[in-house]
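User: Mind token order:
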Amino acid sequence: MRIGKFEIFRKGFRAYYLLVISIVVLTIAIQSMTQYSLSQQRSTALIVNLSGKQRMLSQKVLNELYSCRYHNCDYAEMKLAVTKLYQMNRFLQEGNEALRIEPLDDEEIASQFRRLEPHVEWLYHKLKSFKNFEQISFNDVRYRVDRFVLIMDGIVTLFQKKAEKDIKTIMVIELELAIFAIAILIFEIFFIVNPIISRIMDQKRQLSEIAWHQSQVFSSHMKNISDLQYVLKVEKDPARQKEIYGFIGEELDELKKVSKRMLKSLEKAQNNNRPHHIVIKKVEDFLEKYNLMPSQEVAIGDGKAHSLK
């Protein structure tokens, strides 16, 4: 696959790509799961907090009504408390985008809200107008508030249990993801990192052998050829010169043999397939199936020379 002048998924760098991409994917997955977990915990904490405030608002409505009956009446506070109580009851069930509250999807909690609905509707319609403050029965309001608080206590408890269940689920998923990440890293250490290190050491050994041959065998033969050339220059006898030419030819033949042995040594190391080659070959086949790997290239990064097709 080519992007401009840059080629990705080259065979010469297949192991390196596989290692880097897997680490990046695992990092993104772990970070995404962590962010999702934090978001869920924030949402759950907000819902539990708002549910708890509903109980406080219901008590505030009762206190404000008592003040209006027997003390100074603050109609604005009463109106605000009743409105908040009514609206928040809707938000907790239907969700609210501004508050980042998701719609309720738990049937058990929804059934409790349905039990709560008549009391909320009664309080809202009876107390939304200050004209009803004198005619409405204080005992009726207290009964409705007591029922509201009792049912809301159960709803808060259910929200807390749901939150604990969600957190446990997320913890299990994170644990499974961590185990999977460790397994992938162990796999990469044995089938990618270790083979890369082994290949580097093999290449180093091969280079050492070449250097030794060059410094020892080649130097020896080249010195012999140089000496024979000097003797050839000073030798006047044609028969003797012909014999020296034969010696030079023998030295050249020896040099060819040394060169062939060096090439055979390199080919033997290159053809020595390791277990990770099978795994990487399967990945390459998958990439080639979806045209993600170029079919014509020359690469030597894996210790092999790939010919241009």
